[in-house]
Task: inverse folding
């Protein structure tokens, strides 16, 4: 389904005067404090986040899955859903595909569909954590499997994913490895790391020169004794050994509880080693909850590190990829994604407001209280009118979820695709 632009504008018109009032008040305050409000709005407009193709249906857990109805049945419908998100939020303009779930049956039609919706192809994802009829099983690992034949097959799969991505105009390959072991003694810790390094190196050689390799880490699950790439340090070590276009991908859920993720980000940015982000949130583990729903302060602090790193010239902002990687078990995925996109924009905007000069002075003088005040001043501010203004200027909805509900989008998708339609994905 497609949203009517007229209805969207009509809806925006009904919210316009209260928005003007709120935005005017904030803009006035911010300019008095010396901020360039137009510059801020432009930065918010430019910050776009990719949506993965697997996030558009109900995710479920290993105990069950509750369908949402109207889920996209194929790649074209997935693109249509991202098109809806784009029209409403103006915060996403690309999709990240997972192979083999999303192999295009007709490249020309997929490309023209994406083009008509203004969507490009972000990093490609390979899949060696499942069996899908290939000759050798991945039960005991893929790129780090003890058997060379399995490793070769996993490398070949990644090379095939690169070839698919090349046809679509993607510029990156994301590798997330489920490889590891469930029990002590099951696998050689050292050899499995070595084999993984060899396999990654072969994959790297197969990438075009303008591509990057995003290497994701995860401490546990699906293996519970050891994971071959458990942390940013191991990922970084592997990346450095394969080539300078291989960098570390940080998925917010892939840390043990209470890990200082902003410090990891600062360290990676310091080394120009950050490939990108998978946004989500968690209370306990890789919960894949809505970004910003559990730890909004952490998200803000992460953005503070990213912004200061790029402003200080440690790592270019444009070299970092942004994506949501969450699972939707109880919410409508499209509404959930809209909430995530909003929270990401809000945290980004708050971090832009930190008075960095003042903060640095506090750090140099050892003014601990002053430093905390600097951060709190930005974090406690309600920046929603700024984010809304950026969205309206780009032609999006003043209140994306409000409009989505008013237009009965899910009901229409169910009519179109059926109540039992099921999307491929996690
Ligand atoms: C599994 O933990 C995971 O969420 C990884 O984060 C990957 O990025 C994603 O699945 C898709 O492969
Ligand atoms: Mn991820
Ligand atoms: Mn994950």
Result:
């Amino acid at each position: 389904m497609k949203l009517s632009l007229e209805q969207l504008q009509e809806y925006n018109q009904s919210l316009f005067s209260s928005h003007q009032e709120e935005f005017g008040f904030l803009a006035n305050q911010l300019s008095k404090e010396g901020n360039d409000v137009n510059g801020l709005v432009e930065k918010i407009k430019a910050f776009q986040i990719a949506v993965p193709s697997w996030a558009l249906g109900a995710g479920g857990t290993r105990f069950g899955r509750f369908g949402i109805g109207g889920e996209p049945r194929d790649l074209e419908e997935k693109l249509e859903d991202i098109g809806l998100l784009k029209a409403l939020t103006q915060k996403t303009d690309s999709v990240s595909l997972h192979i083999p779930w999303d192999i295009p049956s007709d490249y020309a039609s997929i490309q023209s569909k994406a083009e008509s919706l203004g969507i490009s192809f972000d990093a490609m994802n390979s899949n060696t954590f499942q069996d899908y009829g290939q000759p050798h099983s991945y039960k005991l690992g893929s790129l780090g499997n003890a058997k060379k034949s399995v490793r070769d097959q996993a490398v070949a799969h990644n090379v095939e994913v690169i070839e698919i991505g090349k046809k679509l105009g993607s510029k990156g390959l994301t590798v997330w490895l489920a490889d590891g072991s469930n029990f002590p003694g099951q696998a050689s810790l050292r050899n499995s790391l070595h084999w993984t390094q060899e396999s990654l190196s072969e994959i790297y050689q197969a990438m075009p020169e303008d591509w990057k390799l995003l290497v994701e880490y995860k401490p546990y699950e699906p293996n519970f004794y050891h994971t071959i790439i458990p942390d940013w340090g191991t990922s970084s070590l592997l990346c450095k050994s394969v080539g300078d276009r291989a960098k570390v991908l940080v998925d917010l859920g892939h840390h043990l509880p209470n890990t200082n993720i902003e410090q990891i980000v600062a360290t990676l940015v310091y080394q120009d080693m950050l490939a990108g982000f998978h946004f989500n949130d968690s209370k306990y583990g890789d919960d894949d909850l809505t970004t910003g729903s559990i730890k909004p302060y952490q998200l803000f602090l992460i953005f503070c590190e990213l912004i200061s790193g790029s402003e200080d010239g440690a790592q270019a902002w444009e070299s970092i990829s942004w994506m949501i990687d969450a699972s939707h078990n109880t919410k409508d995925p499209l509404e959930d994604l809209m909430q995530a996109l909003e929270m990401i924009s809000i945290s980004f905007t708050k971090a832009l407001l930190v008075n960095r000069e003042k903060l640095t002075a506090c750090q140099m003088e050892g003014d601990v209280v002053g430093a905390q005040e600097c951060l709190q001043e930005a974090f406690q501010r309600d920046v929603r009118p700024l984010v809304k203004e950026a969205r309206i200027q780009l032609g999006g909805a003043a209140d994306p979820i409000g409009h989505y509900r008013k237009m009965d989008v899910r009901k229409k998708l169910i009519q179109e695709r059926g109540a039992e339609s099921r999307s491929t994905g996690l």
Observations:
- Residues 5-32 form the longest helix (28 residues).
- The chain has one domain: 48-355.
- Residues 48-355 form a domain with the TIM Barrel fold (CATH 3.20.20.150).
- The chain is about 50% helix and 10% strand.
